[in-house]
Amino acid sequence: MSSITDSGAGSNARAAVGRRAFLAGSATAAAAAAILVSGGAILCPREAWGYETKALAPDTMRSLVRMARDIYPHDRLPDRVYAVAMKVQDEAAAGDAKLKEMYEAGMAKLDKLAKAKHASPYAEVGWEADRVRLLHEIEADPFFQKVRGGLVTGIYNNKEVWPLFGYEGESASKGGYIARGFNDIEWL
After folding, report:
1. Alpha-carbon distance 135 to 144, whole Å?
2. What is the mean pLDDT of residues 179-185?
3. Does residue 2 lie in a domain region?
4. Structural domain of residue 117, as residue ranges?
5. Mean pLDDT of 74-80
6. Which InterPro entries does the record associate with it (predicted)?
7. CA dist 78 to 20, 48, 155, 162, Å?
8. Strands of 41-44's sheet in order across
């Protein structure tokens, strides 16, 4: 990658930003602005969905959706998939005051860390790499582990996303994998 430099005499070389890094950062910043908070709900007009929160503050849910995408980044998945995964955790928090406090306090801590390093709350930090560095700083925290653990099933057990990953689902009801062409090893 070539660096960008000023043509003037005695100028210092500036850090290079490649086209891909610029576009990825721009898309991430645009996506952060795409999820809005309105009253007791988070909205995504670009994808035409909304979710009324049950227990967590809408700003907390918006940040949790951003956090979910940063933990398990899949460009093919719309934000709605991440919101649905976090909806399960919001509903669990509605029935458990300690869990609700963990989410609210954990996100407040993450926002405080983001403000100290980037002068903005976590969901508004523009570069994905900067947000991931923030997440690495709290990865041992029970809050982070709870969110990450819930996302495994929240995202990957969602049958709507299986085709996007090329997964056809369970095979037992279809006679197993062997009888469906998966035993074809002509390359061997």
Report:
1. 8
2. 68
3. no
4. 19-165
5. 90
6. TAT_signal, TAT_signal_bac_arc
7. 20, 11, 11, 13
8. 36-38, 41-44, 49-52
Domains: count for the chain:
1
Place of tokens 């991430």: 28
- Contact present, 71 and 148 (Cβ < 8 Å): yes
User: Which of the two residues, 184 and 141, has the higher pLDDT score?
Assistant: 141
9 — pLDDT class (breaks 50, 70, 90): very low
H helix intervals, 19-96: 19-34, 58-71, 79-94
Token reading at 33? 């602005």
**At residue 105, what are phi and psi to the nearest 5 degrees?**
-70, -40
Helix 128-138 vs helix 97-118: crossing angle, to nearest 10: 130
69 within some domain: yes
* CA 13 to each of CA 25, 75, 125, 127, 157: distance values in angstroms, whole numbers, following the listed order: 22, 33, 26, 22, 48
In the block, tokens 């309105």 appear at: 38
